[in-house]
Amino acid sequence: MPRAPSLALRWWAQQWIEPVEGLGPEFGGRLSRARSYARNRRIWQLGVRPGMLSAQALGSFGYYAVTVQVPSNPDGVWERVQTTLSARPALLASLLADDLPADVEQAFNDAGGSLFYGDAELLGFHCTCLDWQRPCKHTLAVCYDFATQASAHPGLLLALAGRTVEQVVAALHARWAATDPQRADSLPPVDDRDDRDDRDDRPLRAVGFYSAGPSFDQLSIPFETPRVNAALLLKLGKPPFATEAEDPLTPLAAFYAAMTEQASRVLSRSRHTIDSSETADTARSGVAAAEDSTDNEV
User: Fold this and answer.
1) Cα–Cα distance measured from residue 139 to residue 34, given in angstroms and rounded to the nearest whole number
2) How many Cα atoms sit within 13 Å of 53 on the Cβ side?
3) I want to staple 38 with a disulfide (CB 3.0 to 4.6 A). Which of 54, 144, 250, 289 is the partner?
4) pLDDT tier at 27, thresholds 50, 70, 90
5) How many CB atoms lie within 10 A of CB 113?
6) Least confident window among 103-107, 215-219, 264-268
7) Is the pTM of this model over 0.85?
8) pLDDT tens, 175-201?
9) What is the 3-state secondary structure (H, E, C) of the chain?
10) Which residues contact 185 (CB under 8 A, 6 or more apart)?
């Protein structure tokens, strides 16, 4: 009898986590606790790079460093996958829209690789906890946390398999630019995200890359007192490690207010020093001009 999905995951995330959920019955309790860890946000700083997941897991005695090693695909497989995506741009468009058509998985299979590891025995579990048996609940919780995040952002699966969506887009830009420049120009720029309002869209140039930028005193750092003190803390809410009787937000909010006041005071002094320096320079210039005028008259 097939198992019911343990989390509300889209098909690719469920397929990724299935081998972990297929571990023997002796891991049933650990899997249950791992799901609870993931749901209660006890996994922090999840990092995804080719063939490796890393994170901090909040356990009973503090944080544990966790890594999960996953098979990735060699460059040859990626070249063949990118050939398929080059001929079928609709698949790339779906990835950019946080969707993963089944044809993308097929493209990996046809290229001699895989988007999914398929067997939990192929994973390498490492954790700094004292549990001697692996996988421990912390490493399993990292797997569940990754599956949850990959469900919303399938590009994470590609990053774990060897290359990010941005790297794939850049490779296709280069491929199409070599054969059809007009088609390449019609593509969206690499890493064009709506939520990056502060991005610099100017293209990179080799000329001047190693030259120094503006000096520190030329930088302008605007500062305004926030309308709501500790707004970020209020938005995040109580941290998961705090007990019901603990309220870390109140003392932290007071600390934020003190930092804001001190920053405003320091910035005010800095501006006053600059203004005084400019006034002194102007006065010295005036004296020098007057002396030159007197010398000329004599």
Assistant:
1) 8
2) 32
3) 144
4) confident
5) 19
6) 215-219
7) no
8) 877 776 555 454 555 444 444 344 444
9) CCCCCCCCCCHHHHHHHHHHHCCCHHHHHHHHHHHHHHHCCCEEEEEEECCEEEEEEEECCEEEEEEEECCCCCHHHHHHHHHHHHHCHHHHHHHHCCCCCHHHHHHHHHCCCCCCCCCHHHCEEEECCCCCCCCCHHHHHHHHHHHHHHHHCCHHHHHHHCCCHHHHHHHHHHHHHHHCHHHHHCCCCCCCCCCCCCCCCCCCCCCCCCCCCCCHHHCCCCCCCCCCCCHHHHHHCCCCCCCCCCCCHHHHHHHHHHHHHHHHHHHHHHHHHHHHHHHHHHHHHHHHHHHHHHHHHC
10) none
Q: Which amino acid is at 264?
A: S
pLDDT of residue 2: 36
Structure tokens that stand for 143 in this block: 């797997």
Residue with tokens 């102007």: 282
